[in-house]
Design goal:
The chain is of the alpha/beta class and 480 residues long. The protein has two domains: 49-66 and 173-448, Metal-dependent hydrolases (TIM Barrel, Alpha-Beta Barrel); 68-149, no CATH class. The protein has helices at residues 2-39, 42-51, 68-77, 117-121, 125-128, 139-147, 158-169, 176-192, 217-227, 231-234, 253-266, 290-297, 318-325, 340-346, 357-362, 374-380, 391-394, 398-409, 413-425, 431-455, 469-475, and strands spanning 56-61, 85-88, 114-116, 131-133, 197-202, 239-240, 242-247, 270-276, 304-309, 329-332, 352-355, 384-386. Helix 3 (68-77) crosses helix 6, helix 8 (176-192) runs parallel beside helix 9 and helix 19 (413-425) runs antiparallel to helix 20.
Length: 480
Amino acid sequence: MKLQSLLKQSVVVVLFSLMQMAAHAESDFDQQFEKIKLEAADEELYQLLYEMPKGGDLHSHASGSGYSEWWYELALAASEQGYIYHTRIKSNNCREYGHQSFKGASPYYLMFYTITSASLADLPSCEQSEFKPLAELDAKERAAWENSIRLDKPYEGRDEFFQTHWQRLGDLDGNPYVTAEMLYLNLKAFGDEGLLYLEPQLTLQGYQRPDGSPISPSDAASIITERLSRQDVLDTGMTWRFQEAILRFLPNAEESLETTYKIVAENEDWVAVNMVGREDDDKGHPLRFLETLRKLRQQYHGVKLSIHAGEVDEPNFHIRDTLLLGADRIGHGVNLIKDPQTLREMRHGPYLVEVNLISNLLLEYVDDYSQHPFPEYLRIGVPVALSTDDRGMWDSTMTDEFYVAVREFNLSWTEIKLLSRNSISFAFLPEDVKNELLTTYDKRIAGFERRISRKGVAALNKKSAPKRGFICTRYGLCDI
């Protein structure tokens, strides 16, 4: 008995010592990170954040996450499936100003609106003459086409994004082969940045064949899942699930919600419903959908909700109302800071706010980062995670989100790790998969800490991290 007691005491002492060592190591690296922030060049800090293992991205629009050059290259490659695309490059004043073009899909005068050959054939000959095959654009036209679906000018903002970017994609956004290939490119790029998980928002509705005939949601799901089962996707090391998105302000949004809910209930890779679209359009207010969701919950189980809320300028109670709908996660949550009661109730969970720093700045929900509520949420205990929203249209990356957070809000290393762990802990995944990802993340980040602890920033790779337009323009890193 004495021997057993001594052994137990020894085990306790060893475990306590290990815990102290782990805590001391963490404290040491926190201090080292503070030193890096003070002494390292901006380029070195960015490189460190690029190489740093990360968790997941819980708020990523599948089509909005495609970089412009990806869209162009995939549009041309879609000819293999019979899709030939044309884009409007001029106006011949074929219609009166303000008259809607074919199918009412975009304003008539919208340049670089892109459609299939089948859609082109439906237009009057005068309008047909305004379009040019995408494959025949010269270098200047191609650059203009690519710039038309990203916010690359200082005077562009919310209206440019909501009222032209998506419309310009036109029929491209209705091609499931392009969607599937875009998902692969995103998974690979996120994997290269050190992420483990992606939960994109897309829809299985509205896809078309080259002749314009509809593709059913089940057939679209088969096309997407088949592409993502290939070895090059598995080689990314990424885990993924999907959210099915609906436009909240449309007249038939309730009907669309019912269809969407059914799709998620019947497809295991689709785990949640999300209501997207401009929140300053009152037709999409949250309580509009309360009775529909209550009816759906009587029929289906296992469908999660992660809903956009609080992405508006005005104070309102949309976040509170969205929680009433049954949402487990809030997308954006910018104006939560103006609803003190709901803010207090969200401290320490169980709800997460998906924070999109770059999106909120470029769409002018904050004029500068001193107005952003993210550090308040983080430091009073509201669960938060960084996400990229429509990074293709911002020309940004997940590393950019972390760089903004560190530069603008002086994040500690402990806070950085908390953000990554939150992005896995609040994922819509089975507990065993979630725990496996958390274990993998913990091992990766511990290995990263050991590497940097030995040599500091000298341990970073010599090859510079790839950088895109936002970080170049906003912080001038590409000039270094």
